[in-house]
Amino acid sequence: MRKPKRRVLSVASDPGSARALIPVVRELAGRGASVRAVVSGPSIAIFDAELKNVMGLHMPDGITIDRASKLLLDARAEILITGAGAYNQIEHTFRLAARIKGIRSISVLDYWFEYEARFQRVMNGGIVQSHPDIVCALDELSKEELIHAGLKPDQVVVTGGPNLEETLCWWQEMDTKKIAEFKIKYDVTNPGRIIVFFSEPYYTAPTGKPLTGPGGLFRSNGLPVFGYTAPDILKMVIDSLLKGVTNKAKRMNLLVKPHPLEWPEALFPEVTRVQAEWLKAKFMLDAHPKELIAIADAVIGMSSITLLEAALVGKPAISVQVGLQTTQSFDPCIGNKLGFTIPVFDRETLDKVMEALWEGDVSSLRPRPDYQLNIIGAAARVADVAMVL
Predict the structure, then answer these.
(1) The whole model's pTM is what?
(2) Which domain, by its residues, includes 199?
(3) Is residue 249 a contact partner of residue 243, using CB atoms and an 8 Å limit?
(4) DSSP 8-state secondary structure symbol assigned to residue 6
């Protein structure tokens, strides 16, 4: 007698959630599981583009618990798998619905930090937690922090990050022909160096309001949590590049990729003011992050996961956080903590790093990690949990 298929419903909204769940959904489908997806927010475009063989039901972020419960029952779900995003409601709502219906749930962590904010929301004036039965952690460090944030040790399983595994597998298939095709695709075929700046949602789409609240990047008093904003850092990077030009015969392309949740208008003034013939800056609103990493000579950002992804494939990855040391905040860039990225906390260091990029002397900027991440096999390990829970 054939064993019945495992029935799984996956739910994602934040971009990181989509990146973490897609490899797992592929793995489960490959094992014969029946997998359906509910997607909201930025995850809609990501799922639709990268997971065409799985039906993705588009739902609003503010879905009710009753509606989420009905979707779980309609799918006859035995397991719910959600992302662990902090900037949405729907993943939280589905975890609550699964708890009410007695359906086991798993959440897959896509990044370090903000552990409490990922599994709680403000509802009716109070904090409501939505801890799943199992959280799939990235490493022992994140496991310890999840337990510190209120999960029990038996609720946390170290699987590694499926999103990071996807990056390594993608890079193994990369070659000079594909990179050349990406350069043509994004119209950066001149012989200059290519620097990609990955931004973060300090001012969020569609209203442009500062991101506050749990996991927010602004405090309630209007001051940025880490002492800087994305437009601040982009301005410093551009100023440093312009100041450091010693040979105008050289050319550089600065490609600016806004975060999917970001209000990009906040960055427009900095990009449009660049008029130098030897420095070209332009927006990459709809570009695929991995394709931009592929064509980059170096990647710059603040604490984006793309910095770690770039470093994992051997690209210089620079975390510019001028202003952080004036605050009491921790360093939110995990790449700095693990030794994969180059930390820049002051303008003098920024100028030296930008000069190295301009002159092509990037040997000192290569990743030198002092921490081993267990990445290969991550999606399979998450799937193992889902198949037996």
Answers:
(1) 0.92
(2) 165-365
(3) no
(4) P
